[in-house]
Every structure is written in C-alpha cells, then in structure tokens.
Amino acid sequence: MNKQITANVLAVAALVLSVFGLVFFSFPASADVVSMYTHPSADITSNSAVVSGELSNLGGKTSATIWFDYGLTSNYGSKTNSQVMTTIGTFQATLSNLNSCSLYHYRAVGDNGSGAVYGVDRTFSTLCSNDELRVSLEAIPYSGPAPLNNVDLKADVSGRLAGDLRYWFDCNNDGSWDKQLTMYQGPSSSYTADSLCNYSTAGTYTAKVRVEKLGLSAEGTTIITVGGGGVIPSNNQYTLNVQKTVQDITNGTVFGDSIAANFGDEMIYKVVITSSGSVTAPAVYIKDAMPSGLIYLGNLTIDGISDGRSVLDGILLGDMPVGTSRTITYRARVNTKEFFNYGTNSLINSALVYNNGVSISDTATVVVVKRAVAGAATDVNTGIVSDLFGSLLLPLVLAALLLFIFKSQLLGFDKWATVRKEETNGFRAQKKLNSLIKKRK
Q: 91 and 153, same structural domain?
C-alpha cells in the first residue's frame, strides 16, 4: 500500500512540475518586443530620399535601437546608422548615394534586446534624368470690363512624383510675388489662388506662377484682358449664384457642405448654378479644382443627362437666362490610407463658375481621419496576441485537469487520503494514552 501511495505522490509531483513548466515556457519569447511602423518616404531626388518610421511600443523596456534596412530588392542589403530611442515616436533618416531612376525597398527596424522587429516593406523611385516639372496658369475670369477684381489664378502642375510643392504667384509679372505657399501634393495636381488679383484700369496684363518640387522648378504665365467699357449698367446686370454639396454614396450620407468619409469611399458632388438679375448671363463655364486626396471618377451629368466631358478641364454651359438653373453632378473616390498623414485630413475642393464678367465659387469638404493606435495599428505581425492567448488558455485547461484528477480515483488519491487519516488518528490516540500513563505514575 505504501509503495502504491508513494508512486501516486510521485506521479502527482511530476504532473504539477509539467504544468508549471508549460505555464512559464509557453509564453512567446517575443512578448516583450517593440512595435514598428514604416511610413511613406519624402523629398525624393535622383540620388537621395528621406525615409520615416515610428517606434510605437518599447515592449516594456527603457530603450530600443532603431534603424532602416534599404536596397534595390526586398532583400535590402544596406542599413542606416542605428540610433537609440528611450521614448516612443517617429524617426527618419536620409538615404544618399542612390542610383537614379531606380526602385528602392526600405523598412523600419527596432530591437530592445528581445529580437529585431520589422515594419512593412515600402518602396520609392528615385528621379530619372528626364523627369520634368511643368505648370500652366489660368486666370478666372481672363477678361472683362474695368475694373476687373477678384480674379483667380489657377495653377495646374504635372510631373511624376508626389512631394512638397511650393507656389509663387505674381498678378502683374513685375517681380513682386503676391502670394507664396507650400503644400504636399501628388504627381499631378492643381491649386487656385482665390480672388488674388485686381485690375483697376483697362489694359493687357500678364500673370505669372513659379513652382518648385524635389529640386525641380517650372514657370507659367497667362494673359488677362481688361476692357474699357466700365461696369455693366445697372439696368443690364446679371447675377450668378453657385451652391456646391457632397454626398458619401458608399455610406449613404445626405448631401452637405462638409461630410466625414473613410478611405476608398465614393463621393458624388452636386453643383447648382442659378442665374438672376435683369438679363441673360452669357457663356457660363464651370470648372472644379479637385484636391490630391480625391481621385476624379467622372460620371458627369448636366441636368440629369450624361456628359462625356471632364469638369476638371472646364465645361461651357452656355448662356443662362434669368431665373434658370443648371445642376451638375460628378463623382470622386477618397484615396487609399497610405496616401494620408495621421490625424484629420480636410479635402476641400472648389467649383468655379465664371464668364467674361463674373467669377464665383463655392466649396465642399470631405474630412478623412487616419488614426494610429499603439499595439493595434502596427505594420508588423509579431504574433504576440495569438501566442499569448494560447499561453493563458493552456494553464487554465491543465489546472482544470488537475482538479479533476484530485477528485477522481484514477491515481488512488482517495485510498491514500483514507490511510493517511487513519495513521494520524492512531498517532494522536497513542500520544494521549502515553500522557495518561505518565500521570498515573
């Protein structure tokens, strides 16, 4: 009996040790690794580029070493100098001595001593020797009687790559810039300087624009003709009104001046133009300035009738008699997630309605939010969540199994407990008897 009990006790001890071993060693070795993002590149030239990354989790450590892998293939082959970060945040490095006109791969890497973790692979293309930056300029309106005020200057830029684009506008081509700004835009894009120029007297004027992007520059000009006929007489006036709204047809929202949307959602824009006053508004045009965060899809309709022209190029609607209106619709799609910066992105585009006498506009806004959640939005799959779940579930199952074994008769625990109880009671009785005998003596 004692041998059987001893064997049972040893079996239980072995099982308990196995459970503890599984509990401690089933947690993945990578449970305390860092979390890494690889961000899009910027400032790309023919032989250099700036790459960015983000350390979003130190993995319970006080610091991590970070760097970038890069090369002409997904095997990389080169790396930047490493640096130590003690807090989470973004970091960047400049890659130099690159080949021109080449596709490069890169990724962010981090290691806090528990093993290297890699962000997703991203790519960029260096500029080629034949890359060009081109710009054309349009004045809206481009002619009219003096004084001709609140003239818009619209610059259309074409190229091959996205990047920070700097604009300079000059209403009179006199070397004095009337407006300057810098904004991030796609390879081909446009910007309208609303109501920038005023021409008080009759004459022919030249407006100028200059743009710079990724080390390249270009210039463009346009002619504005201001007649001497003066202001349209009060008994011969017309007025144009424009209202622009947008609807997210993917999510089924209603038309509004400003709506929220998600990446890849399809939008439908509606522009309603109304003519009022005492005379017909002659030769009315409409043109849209689509921001780079939206992709123009077309599907243009005018008063419900399909039209094959593009509102981005400008459309002649013709004369508009007093009291008439025209309704124009067209579609666009929100770009993919990778295109946007983290935070709130407001995509504002303007519908321009004009002729030789007036120029008016109205805007609609699509708001897109790109969020980064630590531990949930990382680019790399470390396997921690699934492994941790498995590691916690296994000990619970084994604990339940132990409880079942102790309550069952599989290993003779009931017999061992009975024998042990009898031995203990006998020992206590003998001790009590010895004490009584001792007192009688």
A: no
DSSP β-bridge partners for residue 67: 109
CATH number at 141 reads 2.60.40.3880
Q: What's the alpha-carbon Rg for the chain, to the nearest Å?
A: 37
What is the pairing mode between strands 359-370 and 258-260? parallel
Domain end point (choices 360, 380, 400): 380
Same domain, 333 and 360: yes
Cβ-Cβ contacts under 8 Å for 96 (sequence gap 6 or more): 47, 48
Q: Is pTM beyond 0.90 here?
A: no
Domain count, the chain: 4
CB-based contact 130:94 (threshold 8 Å): no
State which amino acid sits at residue 182.
T
Contact present, 370 and 303 (Cβ < 8 Å) = no
Assigned domain for 385 exists? no
Average pLDDT over residues 188-200: 91
pLDDT, tens digit (0-9, with 9 covering 90-100), for 1-59: 555 555 555 555 555 555 555 444 444 444 588 989 898 888 888 788 999 999 988 98
Cα–Cα distance, 219 to 212 (Å, whole number):
9
Whether residue 241 is found in the same domain as residue 374: yes
Q: Residue 286 in contact with residue 353, Cβ under 8 Å? A: yes
